[in-house]
Amino acid sequence: MISTKQNSAVNSKSYIIPVFESEIIADTIKKIQSSVKFDNWTLLDHFKGSAKETLLSVEDSKIYFLGLGKKREASAVSKVFRSFFYNNKSKLSGNISILLDHDGLEEFAEAIVNGIYLAQYNLGMLKTNQKAENDWFSEDAELNFVSEKAIEKDLAKGKMLAETQMRIMKLVDSPANYKTPQMLSEEIEKMGKSSGFAVKVYDEKQCEKLGLKALLAVSKGSVENPARFVIMEYTHPEANKKVGLIGKGVTFDTGGVSLKPGDNMNYMKSDMGGAAAVIGTMDMAAKLGLKVNIVGAVALTENCIDSLAIKPGDVIGSYLGKTIEVINTDAEGRLVLADALAYVKKNHQPDVMIDLATLTGNCIQALGYAAAALLSNNDDLAQSLINSGQTTGEKVWRMPLWDDYKDMMKSDVADIKNLSSAPIAGAITAAKFLEEFIDGHTNWAHLDIAGVAFGDSEYGSMKSSTGYGVKLLVDWLEGGL
């Protein structure tokens, strides 16, 4: 068990000296006020401090010089430390001190400890032949941060955030047969009890009574694992605003009758990344005691093929009462979000509503894997989310929500259709569809996280969960709301 603390006295088996990239590293190192003994300055002649560059000096103790690169950004610093500790956790041992008393590194304390604890994450949760290997995280050791400024709160928050992120990353990375809607709703109940937020789970019969017709329509093809609708509530006595967070929770997406190609369909276990972000944000808000009231709604279902499954051309109902022509059954995420958005608006009347979903491939075509698409009907809300994205590294890029795109969603036989016939502007037309179900709410934002919820990392050879959304939303709740 690793304990984390701030310590001005240095007495460790190993030291880590992080440095940003510069031409003369030695000058930076000489400014460090500590008792670490280092005299081999020629060793630093060719060390520039580029991102993830490391240099080891062994004298009285091990001294690791760790390059942070040129970007003075919290997310970049966090990734460097995550990579270093992940790749070296079997080599490190004993107490470790990280020197932050130089180059303004104290401001990155939260990001650093967050990256370090994220290095514990293990994708091989279901492997049976794993050897029980001892690594640094399993030791009874101390992680000390040497800093003249008080950073204890930053250290605690960074660790807490990593614990929540790893919990939702595990949910996203779990195979679909290990996180059915019922299993996932039970996990949410456990998190609510442990962290301090209320959870109400509606089963398929209760969903029918509520009138969640669009959610149940998507669920019809999944006979053995029917839908669940989960409402989470966190309240604070000093709160003066209520936020509604809504997440798409498709635990596996075959595309339904409009079947997806087989290549990489295994990644469709990640189609509940939006729900995971909402769950994680609720968890962190409760742990941090944020002074805001939050209602979180996640619509959980599989999108499978069965004789009962909805078909292209079908017309279905919705919670709001609007009829929807199903053009393509693979555009199911917006259907479950439609019911969740309308439900939260009518029953909870939040001041702000934000939904998150791994919604469109068009978003990835437009923005790649660097940012989520942001579409909003409120300029102040959009800008505050953009600011939090820049602060946390979970970036968003605003796309237009103009009514120029509204006609693309008109149906001849129903109030609206779920997919435009034109193979263009897919991320925007999806948002225009959702806008129909916010029922006139004037402070709403939609985040299409298709390109950022799942990605490459040192955790494995294939894509895995990034935990995207929690840092963004927590930062926004703390300062941007």
From TrEMBL:
PROSITE patterns assigned: CYTOSOL_AP
Catalytic center residues: K260, R334
Alphabetized GO MF terms: manganese ion binding; metalloaminopeptidase activity
Domain Cytosol aminopeptidase: 328-335
Top-level enzyme category: hydrolase
Gene Ontology cellular component list: cytoplasm
Subcellular location: Cytoplasm
Catalysed reaction, written as an equation: Release of an N-terminal amino acid, preferentially leucine, but not glutamic or aspartic acids; Release of an N-terminal amino acid, Xaa-|-Yaa-, in which Xaa is preferably Leu, but may be other amino acids including Pro although not Arg or Lys, and Yaa may be Pro. Amino acid amides and methyl esters are also readily hydrolyzed, but rates on arylamides are exceedingly low
Family membership: Belongs to the peptidase M17 family.
Protein name: Probable cytosol aminopeptidase
Lineage: Bacteria, Pseudomonadati, Bacteroidota, Cytophagia, Cytophagales
Gene: pepA
